[in-house]
Task: inverse folding
């Protein structure tokens, strides 16, 4: 199906999210949509899939003008969107979610649906237990489930809004192969991303948006420098690798045994020093989060000890970890990090209250404004967090990290961030390291781990490697280890 969007305009109050954007996507192709944070990519795709209505402009499918009043209508026309943050029902099972929205709903033939789920999951190499509750899945697994659901619904235009952020390198390879296959079968695939290498690897054509406007359209062979210039309106220099000197041990993990219903980490030993940045690499769900949560005081270890700055905190409550200067920034920003419905000002007041009993809202607003400026958040003090673009939600989370901190535990701090914003975030994190904070960072971006971390710990199915000096690692070796080879 050929998709045409013509002269689309969309504003949210004073924010002009899209101005005169046109896009044509041919059937049988993978079309990239590239742009910096807040460029309007998600808004454009929400309009195409029926989640939002444009203020002006039209949409044509195979030359026929269409107007969708809801995503369900979009889906009936064969347009499905895989969102950046999972849009599922966490309290229900994988199978229930898979069947959700299907004509017949939950009364549908469950056995048939179960079979379809298994077949699709096998085709992609995804390992999803149909009876698991969705809130026990990782972000990546939830994305996988949603992708399978859309395919099962028979979409002809598949929109993927940054689909690779939560999944492992081998899963990405499989996903890309599947997307190519879907394109060969005649589907139109729209691939929203910040990552230039993904555009190069996958896309037959790419449209670049900048600040709500069309910046250009490019076909291979791509020049990364040209794409960056289209995205940001100027070249963006890459930083040199930096060696931050290390201080005293901050985090000392001894023979830690910790687990949940599906995974168990055995005898983990790790010391992180002041100023050190340790990267945790592995497929989503390989145990990184267990270690992070144990070190944040959110889950109790079964055995072993956790010491922070010499104090034994094993088995102590989360509040004791907070008091010791341990801060945890989770991956799931809209469920655990931010509170939908609350504004930016309200979020900052929760973390930095300006009064004991009464809040001076005038001052609160001014403080929020200051942080918005400092962290380059595209939003206003009164903006509710769910109205921010994904990248700006991430910046907000970072702006909410209290100072000083002894130990920062960050999951995917640059997930969903464009090149320039990622550099900016890492600058902030390095600044913390230089001030003596110890950092432990989970990321699926191996290149970024290699670039910024002193040492890297690799996880595979609950196995945990010794910390490896990042300078002695190659991207290739790291990729193999993550896939369970060469241990
Ligand atoms: N519901 C909303 N209410 C108010 N403003 C909004 C809303 N949705 C989006 N915006 C604003 O519109 C602009 C474009 O946002 P959009 O999410 O489309 O960007 P994006 O290119 O997808 O960015 P990212 O890569 O960070 O997700 C941003 O300035 C954003 O804050």
Result:
């Amino acid at each position: 199906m050929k998709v045409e969007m013509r002269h689309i305009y969309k504003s949210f109050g004073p924010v002009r999210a899209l101005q005169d954007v046109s896009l044509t996507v041919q059937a049988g192709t993978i079309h990239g949509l590239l742009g910096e944070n807040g460029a309007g990519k998600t808004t454009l795709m929400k309009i195409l899939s029926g989640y939002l209505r444009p203020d002006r402009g039209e949409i044509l499918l195979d030359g026929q003008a269409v107007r969708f009043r809801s995503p369900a209508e979009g889906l009936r026309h064969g347009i499905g969107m895989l969102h950046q943050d999972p849009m599922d029902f966490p309290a229900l099972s994988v199978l229930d979610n898979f069947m959700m929205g299907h004509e017949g709903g939950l009364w549908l033939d469950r056995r048939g649906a179960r079979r379809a789920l298994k077949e699709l999951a096998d085709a992609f190499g995804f390992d999803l237990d149909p009876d698991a509750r969705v809130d026990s899945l990782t972000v990546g697994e939830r994305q996988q489930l949603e992708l399978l659901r859309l395919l099962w619904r028979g979409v002809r235009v598949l929109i993927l809004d940054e689909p690779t952020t939560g999944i492992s390198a081998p899963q990405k390879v499989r996903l890309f192969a599947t997307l190519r296959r879907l394109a060969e079968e005649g589907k139109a695939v729209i691939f929203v991303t910040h990552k230039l290498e993904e555009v190069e690897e996958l896309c037959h054509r790419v449209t670049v948006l900048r600040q709500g406007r069309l910046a250009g359209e490019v076909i291979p062979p791509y020049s990364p420098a040209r794409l960056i210039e289209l995205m940001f309106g100027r070249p963006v220099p890459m930083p040199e690798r930096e060696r931050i000197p290390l201080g005293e041990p901050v985090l000392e993990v001894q023979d830690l045994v910790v687990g949940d219903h599906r995974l168990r980490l055995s005898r983990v030993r790790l010391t992180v020093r002041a100023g050190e940045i340790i990267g945790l690499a592995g497929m989503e769900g390989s145990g990184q989060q267990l270690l992070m949560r144990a070190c944040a005081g959110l889950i109790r270890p079964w055995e072993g000890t956790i010491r922070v700055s010499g104090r034994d905190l094993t088995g102590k409550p989360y509040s004791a970890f907070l008091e010791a200067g341990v801060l945890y920034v989770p991956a799931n920003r809209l469920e655990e990090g931010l509170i939908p419905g609350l504004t930016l000002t309200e979020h900052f007041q929760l973390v930095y209250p300006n009064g004991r009993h009464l809040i001076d809202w005038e001052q609160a607003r001014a403080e929020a404004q200051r942080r918005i400026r400092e962290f380059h958040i595209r939003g206003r003090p009164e903006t509710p967090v769910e109205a921010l673009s994904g990248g700006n939600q991430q910046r907000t989370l970072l702006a909410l990290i209290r100072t000083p901190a002894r130990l920062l535990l960050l999951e995917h701090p640059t997930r969903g961030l464009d090149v320039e914003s990622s550099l900016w975030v890492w600058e902030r994190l390095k600044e913390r390291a230089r001030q003596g904070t110890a950092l432990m960072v989970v990321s699926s971006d191996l290149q970024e781990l290699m670039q910024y971390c002193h040492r890297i710990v690799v996880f595979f199915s609950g196995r945990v490697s010794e910390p490896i000096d990042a300078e002695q690692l190659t991207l290739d070796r790291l990729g193999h280890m993550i896939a369970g080879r060469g241990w």
In short: Residues 12, 15, 17, 35, 37-43, 378-379, 387-392, 416 surround adenosine-5'-triphosphate (CB under 6 Å).
